[in-house]
Amino acid sequence: MTAAGDHGGVSNPYSVMVVCTGNICRSPMAEIVLRERFAAAGLADQVVVDSTGISDEERGNPVDRRARSVLVARGYPTGDGHRARQVRPDDQRDLVLAMTNAHARALRGLDPVLFRSFDPDASGDLDVADPWYGGPRDFEVCLAQIEAAADGIVEHVRNDLGNAQVTRHG
Question: Pairing between strand 47-53 and 14-20?
């Protein structure tokens, strides 16, 4: 974790990492949505977002075509050249977002938070649904769950950034 007060400028932005299983469906979808939401909130120059997977099985692969299709249908940009990679123990970020409880357990040393814990309407099972074995509707459900939590994540990061400013200037 970065010390409070280290996020004031572009040279040391607040870092967010989203983690799923293979880094081709849920986490890159969330990465793209979050980038757009941070940009809309005027925080694009203060926050960087990336994504990884707990598995190495998809290493080097692009975003799944079905995930890309649902993102494009909702107006999100998808041409960032994403290539799947496995999370490493040295992947320290200010905020690590796990897509499921199983991912959170695998990421214990990185102090993860469940992605859907930022959705004010989520209750019970906070896992983001895995669309991999499903059809287009499953990818739409996954994207809806990601979008429902995204504004809460932006607000959380905005508060962290504000607290860093207060700590540095107060």
Answer: parallel
Q: Which residue ranges form the domains of the chain, and what is each CATH number?
A: 14-90+116-156 (3.40.50.2300)
pLDDT of 168: 46
Reported pTM: 0.91
Assign 11 a pLDDT band (cuts: 50, 70, 90). low
CB distance 98 to 113 below 8 Å = yes
What number is the average pLDDT over the span 121-128?
A: 95
Q: What are φ and ψ of residue 52, in 5° steps?
A: -145, 180
Which residues are known catalytic residues?
20, 26, 130
Give the integer Cα–Cα distance in Å for 156 and 170. 20
The residues, ordered by sequence, that sit 6+ positions from 155 with a Cβ below 8 Å of its Cβ are none
Q: Is the pLDDT of residue 152 over 80?
A: yes
